[in-house]
Structure formats: C-alpha cells, structure tokens
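Intended use. Records like the one below are meant for learning the mapping from a protein sequence to its folded structure. Do not use them to infer anything beyond what is encoded.
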Amino acid sequence: MARNPIMGLIWLALLIFLAWPIAAACAGVWLVLMPFEGCFRFVRDITDFLEKIITWPRDCGRAIGDCSTRCPTPF
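Structure written out for the chain above:
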C-alpha cells in the first residue's frame, strides 16, 4: 500500500480537533461508571462503548504513522 503524507496530516487534524477532545470527555464518564459494572449489568455495555471511543486516539496515531488512506473510526 502506498503511503500518502497528506492523509497523515488529515489524521493529525482529526486527532487534535476531534479524537482527543471527545475521548477526554468520555474518559471522565467512563471512570465514574467503572465501579458500577459489577452491580448493574447494563453499565457494562455503556463502559464498553465508551472504551472504544477512549481508544480512538490510539487508532488515529496508527493512521498518522502509516499515512493510511483508511479513516480511523472508534466503532
């Protein structure tokens, strides 16, 4: 697969302006809900979803390094 540095710049902008702020907001909610996973089964589904969003910046970082043409998505 060919490396496209323009795509790396696009994913860098995505990381800075979308992925980090959204992941930071979700991290607080995730931390508050984590202790309640053992008590309420439905909380597990919520925390699993939030964890996917929290790890989205890692996927963006991989896309930046690879200059991937595939958009990194949290889902």
